[in-house]
Amino acid sequence: MRLGKLEDVERSESEHLDLRVFVGRRSASIGSSDLSDSALKELAERAVAMASAAPEDQFAGLAPEELLLRGGFPDLDLNEAAEPSPQELLALAQAAEDAARGVAGVTNSEGGSAGAGQRVFALVTSHGFAGAYGGTSRSLSASVLAGEGANMQRDYAWRTAHHGADLPPPEEIGLLAGQRAVARMNPGRVKSGAMPVVFDPRVGGSLIAHLAGGMSGNAIARRASFLLDHAEGQLFAPGITIVDDPLRPRGLSSRPFDGEGLPTARRNLVENGRLTGWLMDSAAARQLGGQPTGHAVRGAGGSPGVSASNLHLEPGELSPAQLMADIADGVYVTELIGHGLNPVTGDYSRGASGFRIVNGELAGPVAEFTIAGNLIPMFAALRCANDLEWHRSVNVPTIRIDGMMIAGD
């Protein structure tokens, strides 16, 4: 819905099969959305021919058979039985946009939307694994603009869940989008220099995602990770714990088995500030002389990659206000722009916008500045508040990092 009128309705359905073939230590992958018998026969023939011509990889192969998940899979409550009708989705989208447009200062709208989906993932291997799991998705969003002309500011609110009951009311989504946009009007500039940076929970999760990416065994094996020299090292302050929990009921990234048929399990990636080891699929485990950790993921064809599931940073003891109370001059970041991370060195530089912090209080919007540092000292300086949120794939409380470099005026 945009400006009170229906702008777009979409529905799509698709299915896709990916086939990975091993010929000794040679492998190839091929995919098709044509699942007819003749197409699948041709798919298999081409995959074998490609694998026969591929270079050898001494680490390629199926997951260890003795480690495969056997028996029943845990019920993670990822499916909602009733599918909302298009009319119900329309009403939700309209309510979200109406609430956003009703906020004083909102002058235009990019729309309110509501969506519903369902997916199923199945994996079968030639050494004895067969399993499937799926989940529904329900989403609500609103995006609006405040102000006029060159002073226009945009912001949004968005939520997704497996069950509609886990979403906030559409009016709450719209109100938050409108309030966020209005709060950004007439932004100032921030002076350059070193200062504390506080990350709002909706952007702070990206820091933990960078950590998980650096813990990939594939990156470690290629010597292409900023964490290479920090195995099981004291990376964060004592007391910091970061958890990967693929078995959390209704978690956005929950899964009973990984992309190779291995069981998944809750694990502390960081415990009392220390790394607990790498995230490995079978190929990385062979290369690094370890055991696969159940973190293999499948993309659109090709060999498995490595990824965590539902990540969260355990909360601290201070409220966000207490966490910021002693900051004489700093910035509170609500939006990050660009992808300014060197995954090999950990050098970090992102465009940002948000609010100034003056004497422990938010003191007006600021925009067009850059925050920079290196993830290793950033992690060492990281402190967190007690306002952990639970509705994302990476859930974090408000995060504070002192001593980051700000490039502004």
Automatic annotation (TrEMBL):
Residues 81-184 form the Metalloprotease TldD/E central domain. Residues 192-408 form the Metalloprotease TldD/E C-terminal domain. GO terms for molecular function: metallopeptidase activity. GO terms for cellular component: cytosol. Residues 1-51 form the Metalloprotease TldD/E N-terminal domain. It comes from the Bacteria. Residues 289-312 are annotated as: Disordered. GO terms for biological process: proteolysis. InterPro entries: Metalloprtase-TldD/E_C (IPR045569), Metalloprtase-TldD/E_cen_dom (IPR045570), Metalloprtase-TldD/E_N (IPR002510), PmbA (IPR047657), TldD/PmbA_N (IPR035068), TldD/PmbA_sf (IPR036059). SUPFAM superfamilies: Putative modulator of DNA gyrase, PmbA/TldD (SSF111283). Belongs to the peptidase U62 family. This is Modulator protein. The lineage of its organism: Bacteria, Pseudomonadati, Pseudomonadota, Alphaproteobacteria, Sphingomonadales.
